[in-house]
Amino acid sequence: MSQQKVDRYKQEKANRRENLKKQKKKKLWTKIGLYGLAAVLTCGIVGGIGLTINNQYKAYIASQPDYSSTSKVIPDYANILADETESAAEETQTDAKETTAQEETKVEETKTEVSTQAQTK
Questions:
Q1: pTM above the 0.90 mark?
Q2: How many CB atoms lie within 10 A of CB 102?
């Protein structure tokens, strides 16, 4: 039995350099794998936090009122807007009356022309 131990020791001593190289390579690849895994996990966590913050910011912005829209009018406490809208409505009515008056005069002129032409014939 002791001879077997001696033979095993001689064989291990002969292959010691190769075994050390294999162990160093194994340790190196283990470190690379662990650092890579740590980097991927860190990027995932930081990316998730960033995405959450971005979504919360977008939701906050969407919940804020939009003051650039002209469709929301402040209540007219001093009747300023009502006066402006009434005057604008009156202007459009007077413009419409003027155009109808002009059209009526043209119609009357054409009638008189037709009647004068009929009388001269």
A1: no
A2: 10
Query: How far is it, in rounded angstroms, from Cα 118 to Cα 108?
Result: 15
**Cα separation of 66 and 55, whole Å?**
19
CA dist., res. 84 & res. 15, Å (int): 102
Concatenating the DSSP letter of every residue in 6-59 gives: HHHHHHHHHTHHHHHHHHHHHHHHHHHHHHHHHHHHHHHHHHHHHHHHHHHHHH
Dist CA 81 CA 77 (whole Å): 9
Residue 77 to residue 84: CA distance in whole angstroms: 14
CA atoms within a 13 Å half-sphere pointing along the CA-CB vector of 18: 5
Residue with the two structure tokens 């009526």: 104
Give the pLDDT of the chain (121 residues) as one tens digit per residue: 688 999 888 888 888 999 999 999 999 999 999 999 999 999 999 999 999 999 999 999 989 877 665 555 566 555 665 555 556 666 666 666 666 666 777 777 777 776 776 666 5
